[in-house]
Amino acid sequence: MPPPVKRPLSHELAPEPLLTIEVPEAGTSSEELQIKDYRYIGSYNWAEGSDQSNPVIVVPGSPPEWLENPLPITVPGDTGAHYRDRNGHMLPGRPLLALVTAVNELNVQPAVEWKAADFVTDRNSLRKLLRWVRRTGRDWRIDTELVGNKTIFLNRWEQKTVDHLHGNMYGFGFENAVTKTVPGGDGVPGHARIATYDYAGLKMIMQFEVDAYLPTPKESSTPPAETADTLAEAISTINLAEDEVGRSFGLGIIRKGNSNIPNSAIIELATTTRQVDWKERYPQIFFSQTPNHFLARHDQLQMGTFTRIDKRAIDCPVLQAANSRLQPAFKKLRAALEAIQRIVMEHGHGERLTLLYTNKRLEVYKRLDDKSCLPDEALALFNTQ
Prior knowledge:
Layout: E1 19-21, E2 35-46, E3 56-61, E4 65-66, E5 73-74, E6 79-83, H1 86-90, H2 97-106, E7 119-122, H3 123-133, E8 140-147, E9 151-157, E10 162-166, H4 171-178, E11 179-180, E12 188-199, E13 202-210, E14 212-213, H5 217-221, H6 228-236, E15 246-248, E16 251-257, E17 266-272, H7 278-288, E18 292-297, E19 305-306, E20 308-313, H8 317-347, E21 353-358, E22 361-366, H9 376-379
Parallel strand pairs: 3-16, 7-9, 7-13, 17-18
Antiparallel strand pairs: 1-22, 2-3, 2-12, 4-11, 5-19, 6-10, 8-9, 8-21, 12-13, 14-17, 15-16, 18-20, 21-22
C-alpha cells in the first residue's frame, strides 16, 4: 500500500464560496424523530487484490463472525497501513459506486426505487453533518452531486485515504481477536452493509461498515467445513482476470457470501479507556440502526488488555437516554438535509458543489472538476423517464 498523500481540503475547489449554510432550528414539534421503514438492500466486501486499476467487490460478502472468547484478552497495538476511506482509495471520485453496484447486483425484492431516493450516502457523511449542527467536530469536506430528478449523492472526501498506525491504538487488534473470517469476508478487511429507510420524510439509501455479526446457535456449534487458513489460501488463488469475474458499472463482481444475516445480528464494536461520550458514539448506532453495541474496556495501566465488554442493545436505557438528548440535533439535521437538497437541485446537473466545513462554518463551493460520481450506465438507474 503506498504512503498516504494528504490533500488540502480546498483541492480543486473555486477560490471563493458560493454561500454559507447556517445551522437550522430544530422546529417546535415535540414528536420524536424516528427512523422508519428500515430495510436491508445489499452488502459487499472488497476482494483481495483489488486496487484502483482493477476494483473488484464480493457480493453480498460477509462481516466477521463474533466469537465469545473468554476475558481477559490481550492484543498488540495497531501498526502499519489501515484504510481510513476504503472506497475513496479504490474508487477515487466515485466512493458510492460500489454501493450502487452491490445493490443492483443483489437485486433484493421489492426492487429499490433509485429515482425515489432523496439521498445516497454513507454513515460517515451523516455523522459529519450532525457534528456541524451540534457545533462540534473537526474540519471536513463532502462532495455532492444531483443525480436524476432529486437524488443527492453525499460523496465522502478525505484528505488521505490511508492511515499509518504506530501502536498506540488497539481497535483493529481487538476486532481480530474476537471475530473470525467466514466465506465472503475473506478479502480486504471491512464489510459494507446497505439499507434504505425513511428519515422524517426523506428517503435515504445509506451504507455503513459492520464489525461483526452474532451467529445462530447452529452456526456457532457446527465445526466449519473449511478453516480460516484454508479460506485465506483459497481466496489468494483467485485470479482477478476479467474472464473469471462478472462486471457491472466498471467494477468486477464475485458472487460469494451471505445475504441472509438478519439486522438483529449486526454488531458495532468499540474500545475505550475513558468515560464514554454517548452524544458522539450514539449517532453511529442510530444512523445505521445497529441493534448491538459491544464496548470493550481497557485502562491506561494495561493498554491492550481488555477485561470487560459492555454489551448493549439499541433500545437499552443508556442508549435511549442518548437518543433523547440528541433529538434536537437529529431534527436540525433533517432540516439541514432539506436545505442541502434544495441548494444542489437549484444548481442543477451542470454544476458540482462541495460542502466545506472549516472554522465552525459550513460553506458551499463549486468544484473545478465536473466529472460525475457515477458512470453513465449507473446514472441511467435514476432516469425519471
